[in-house]
Amino acid sequence: LHSDHCGLISKFAKSGCKILAGETEGEMINFESGNLYWRMLDDLFIKFGFPEAQFGRNTDIHPGRKYCNTEKVNFTYVDEGDVLEYGGYHFQPILTPGHTPGHMCLYDAEKKVLFCGDHILGTITPNICIELGVENPLEDYLNSLKKIDALDVDLVLTSHGTMIQDVHGRIQELFQHHEARLEEVKNILTNEWKTSYMVAQDMTWEIMCKDWESFPAPQKWFATGEAISHLQYLYLSGIILREERNGIYYYKK
Ligand SMILES: [Zn+2]
């Protein structure tokens, strides 16, 4: 769904390439090519407390929008159980929702190789963000990590940065990261109602900015998305409370 993975697919499709995707992701990519997707995503972020005033700049410079695929593509859908044969490899698609709602990895069981897209990354943690039609993206993501943890894998080829050899070790680090993040978010909440945007401001971020106000607008968006996924996980686990006031969600302990 993200532009850094599918921004060029309509160009490939026009030159006669067959474009494969899981159905959930393919349908969303085609929906994203129209204007309604971004309007609905803006509304969703407003509902989670992102200030409307930030949208002008966010819309202009958000890389997801800027490089988004803008034409519908006639996908060939693949699903779990299919086998894709290329160059002596036999890849099974594995559905791993979390980073995006229909995210898929490709696994060759014989060669123990996994192309994992953005599901597992070596040096950074994949962004887990709210999406249209998704209530609890972090729970989806953690379940998808467990799914990969059960596989016999020697080499993971990621979509950003380094390859990973110790995938099970990296999965444990990702579990610990989200546990620590959930704890941090819980500690930021008090007995006062706060929006996801307010919580995002108080979370720690590895970014070269002196304070929240100097974050570029798209980074505020990504940070708020991360805050939402952790708050939703805590709320849907019954650990914190959520209330809707004037169309905006607020959370408290
Ligand atoms: Zn991505």
Explain this structure to me?
The protein has 253 residues and is of the alpha/beta class. It has a single domain (3-252), classed as Metallo-beta-lactamase, Chain A, CATH 3.60.15. The chain contains 10 helices and 9 strands. It has helices at 3-6, 9-14, 23-32, 35-47, 55-61, 63-66, 137-149, 167-188, 196-202, 217-236; strands at 20-21, 76-77, 84-86, 89-95, 104-108, 113-117, 155-158, 241-245, 248-252. Helix 7 links the parallel strand 6 and strand 7 (155-158). The two termini are 33 Å apart. The mean pLDDT is 94. It binds zinc ion (ZN). Zinc ion (ZN) binds next to loops.
Q: What is the structure about, briefly put?
A:
By secondary structure, the chain is an alpha/beta fold. It is 42% helix and 15% strand.
List ligands, each type once. Answer: zinc ion
Q: What is the CATH topology classification name?
A: Metallo-beta-lactamase, Chain A
- Number of helices, counting only DSSP H or I runs of 4 residues or more: 10
Could you say which structural class the secondary elements and strand pairing correspond to? alpha/beta
Low-confidence stretches: none
